[in-house]
Design a protein that fits this description.
Elements (H helix, E strand, L loop, with lengths): L4 E6 L6 H13 L8 E6 L5 H7 L4 E5 L16 H6 L4 E4 L2 H6 L4 H13 L3 E6 L3 H5 L3 H13 L8 E5 L13 H18 L2 H6 L1 E5 L7 H5 L6 E4 L7 H6 L4
Parallel strand pairs: 1-2, 1-8, 2-3, 3-4, 4-5, 5-6, 6-7, 7-8
Helix pairs in contact: 5-7, 7-8
The structure holds phosphoenolpyruvate (PEP).
Amino acid sequence: MTRKFFIGGNWKCNGTVDEVKKIVCMLNGGEVPCPNHIETIISPPFIFIPMVKSCLRTDFQVAAQNCWTKKGGAFTGEISAEMLKNLGVPWVILGHSERRTLMHETDQVVAEKVDYALSQGLKVCLCVGESLKERECNETAQVVSRQVQAVAARVGCWANVVIAYEPIWAIGTGKVASPEQAQEVHYNLRKWIDCHISCQVAQDIRIIYGGSVTAANCKQIGGQPDVDGFLVGGASLKEEFIEILNARN
Ligand code: PEP
């Protein structure tokens, strides 16, 4: 089974109109593998989504960084899955550790969001990952499988889900997981999926790595058998993102 390499650029809460124009220009001019070999999502802040969508090359898809747990209505400040669908946004990133930690999104809230987004026809990049303390207590596999289990309790079809393993201690810190550490977690998670979801899902689902991925480390991490791509934060705002998109070349 070959899983198509998947790379996401998560801009987080960054950018001005001018900066967005510059990044889109850089992306549009970049030489990258053809869409037969790689799937790419670009995730700007909500407010820039229409602008990015209107001028970004069509082989890159746009993703939101979050959405509401259910149908829209009296939920001030939220963006619903229906709105994303209506705008033609195909992907949403859910469960990012910054939302789990800073916005107190529990496993159950994340699972609710994933379930609802999928039911509305969105594709989901589901983020999971352990804290430094959990890693030091050897709880990584347990934490990551618990986070996926919460989603599995609600979701039956995984065809439109990509899982991003993002150790919290590696996000935005410059402290990247070694290729072996990433491979170990991805391998164990795939094994867990095989036992608790299905053998087919385990074979097909893309598990990507996120946490201080750069042009300098992407080839080694991306060369691991169970690493199917990356979710990139800081480096997705820079020229080096094009090199990262070529990690498997
Ligand atoms: C992220 O935001 O998902 C991320 C991995 O950030 P960074 O690449 O900056 O560590």
